[in-house]
Amino acid sequence: MPMLTSNRRRMLQASAATVLAGVTTRWARAAAPTKRLFTMSLRGGSIGVNTDQPEAIRLAARHGFEAVTPDPHALANASVDQRAEWIDQMKESGLVWGAAGLPVEFRRDEATFREQLNSLPDLAAAMQDAGVTRVGTYLMPCHDDLTYTQNMRQHAERLRQCVQVLGDHGQRFGMEYVGPKTLWTSKRYPFIHSMAETKDLIAQIDQPGVGFILDSWHWYTAGETVADITSLSNADVVACDLNDAPAGLAVDQQIDNQRMLPMATGVIDLKSFLQSLVAIGYDGPIRAEPFNRKLAAMENGPACAATAKAMTAAFDLIDG
């Protein structure tokens, strides 16, 4: 009898665990985001549209974007009244800020870095006044002089100082790894060119509010998967870029400054990329960054229209 009682107890415990697991799984599925929270953001410089901040706001509104990239120097040079006017224009058009570029050159000599770091508090304060909360930069994946370890140390030390200033002004900081093999093998010492390595740098910086700029192009050229994206949370992702790749080239032959607008070729699995961002509840800006000569040769209006059309088609993969 004691043996039967023990067995029965184990059976009941196992049954309860199975039921609980089922309930937990159903709850998790119900809790997982099902619609996109991210915004379609205009970053003019990436599509050959070089204009000032107020014109960028007007172009974004005119062509159906949901966010626009802030220019730290423009915001700092503007008066309080000018900044307020720009923000009012954005509110009227239903626009929010995207992610600003880091206004510090940290890749060159120490003197240049120090000079620009000294100006960062004023720029960060202007961004804070305007309501900008996201700042990011890219990581050059190779170096002629610094070994991997030396470059890692320099990046961690310099970017930590930038992050501390940004954090004091309510801004998160994202880093974009650069994936193409044609670039990271182009100099003597390869450097960070994957998500896993960027996680190492984030750990070395060891500051709150530091995460990723994800790019479908670099995700593709780094040979990464949906599982890599879903290993992150919304808090880990500061901004995203959306691109397609030229057809007819092997992944290791892709060249970084020769990309395509989203949905142009279907080489990159943008549906899986975007669905993964939905799954983690990503709620920040997504920009097109094709560095495409044909697009850059267009006038500002047509370039913005073509970009918005391509991004809308990509978003329709998950919105439909």
From TrEMBL:
Keywords: Isomerase. GO terms for molecular function: isomerase activity. InterPro entries: IolE/XylAMocC-like, TAT_signal, Xyl_isomerase-like_sf, Xyl_isomerase-like_TIM-brl. It holds the Pfam family AP_endonuc_2. The keyword Isomerase applies. Its EC number is 5.3.99.-. The keyword Transit peptide does not apply. Residues 57-300 form the Xylose isomerase-like TIM barrel domain. This is Inosose isomerase. It comes from Rubripirellula lacrimiformis. The gene is iolI_2.
